Amino acid sequence: MESTQTVNIIFVGRTGSGKSSLCNKIAGRTLFREGHNLFSETEGVSSEVINWPSALQIKVKLIDCPGFGDNRPEMTNEVLFSRILTFIQSLKDGLNIVLFCTNSRSRFDAHDSLELEMLGLLLGEQLYDHVYIVLTQVNNLVVEERPRLITRFMYQLPSILESQGFPSIPEERILVSDFDNFDKFMTPLTREIQTQESFVPEIADGVDAKDPESIARFLQSPEMKKVMQKYEEIIEAKKNQIIKIEETLLNKTKEMEEQIQEYQMRNQQVQVELSKVNDLLKNQQYTNEQTKKELEASQQLYRQQINEFNKIIENAKITDAHTKRLIKAKEKQIQELIGKIDQINRVQSQPEIRYIERSGGCWPF
């Protein structure tokens, strides 16, 4: 690699995998918007050129991509592919390094496998000679758990990739991003930057990155249809999982409402008894001091019960309100997933088109 050449590093992976945060951490300042809620922040492909933070005199272009599985209905796969391809095709020197980010919660699950397969179809087989798998957001794990989970990830990932039919990825291209111990990520990546040559992705024949219809036709290729079918199965499974959670939440809010009703009734009953005792004491309707003390003890007990019931009712109302907010969020997630399944079905139901033979498979023209 020539010393004057800018090294192009593209960050890819599903929504919420920590791509933007990792870009900012490498740069040492905030250059890219980060998402801290349920919704994606990265809408288009963003890039910034930085001086690599080391003794090396190397300029690096950090390229932050929107994630697959985006939770906004307008961000279809056609739109995502179009934006990524348009940017990649604008790079004069191609790509050097592809950092595929998977967060520490999922640790490269079926969804990640699918994203990587999509990228392989999108950018060609050369991708696998330049891809690095990065376990991100490790600093969010419990400190005592990190060594065990990292070791398991490093040990299991090669066999997972092999079982999914991916080319072998050497150990030096499996990285761990722990913001509390960032040198362990930067040192091997710096070493790779010095040696990794660039490649120009072999974009599918006939695909115009600026034309969403062209991308839609690309999604109809036999290979891509298989991937999209897997994608639909994963989304369907996730939808069913959320529906089960929603059912549990609905049962919980029903329990809370019944509890509120029960304790409001008990509260009213105690209020009646307390009112009777208050009247007896106020009108001095007792025969002796012993009876008075008994009435005062009952008065104190009823007041304590009312306070306890009010606390239970208040906590149940708070829990009920929180549960209902969660249910609304789950309903929104379900609708988004249904929308994604509809998008996949619309692409798959489009008229068949002709294909030309090409190395690595058949592609539309």
Could you please describe the fold and organization of this structure?
The protein is α/β, with parallel strands linked by helices. It has two domains: 7-203, P-loop containing nucleotide triphosphate hydrolases (Rossmann fold, 3-Layer(aba) Sandwich), CATH 3.40.50; 238-348. It is built from eight helices and eight strands. It has helices spanning 19-27, 77-90, 110-123, 146-163, 183-195, 212-218, 222-282, 289-348; strands at residues 7-12, 46-51, 59-64, 97-103, 131-136, 174-176, 355-358, 361-364. The strands form two sheets. A six-stranded mixed beta sheet has the order 2-3-1-4-5-6, sandwiched between helices. It has a two-stranded antiparallel ribbon with strand order 7-8. The longest helix is centred in the last third of the chain and has 61 residues, at 222-282. It is elongated. It starts with 6 loop residues before the first strand and ends with a strand. The model is unreliable at 350-365 (pLDDT under 50).
Radius of gyration using CA atoms only = 30 Å
CATH H-level homologous superfamily name of the largest domain: P-loop containing nucleotide triphosphate hydrolases
Continuous helix count: 8
Tell me the domain tally.
2
How would you write the strand order of the largest sheet? 2-3-1-4-5-6
Structural class: alpha/beta
CATH architect. name of the largest domain: 3-Layer(aba) Sandwich
How much helix, percentage-wise, in residues?
40-55%
Largest pleated sheet: 6 strands, mixed
CATH class of the largest domain: Alpha Beta
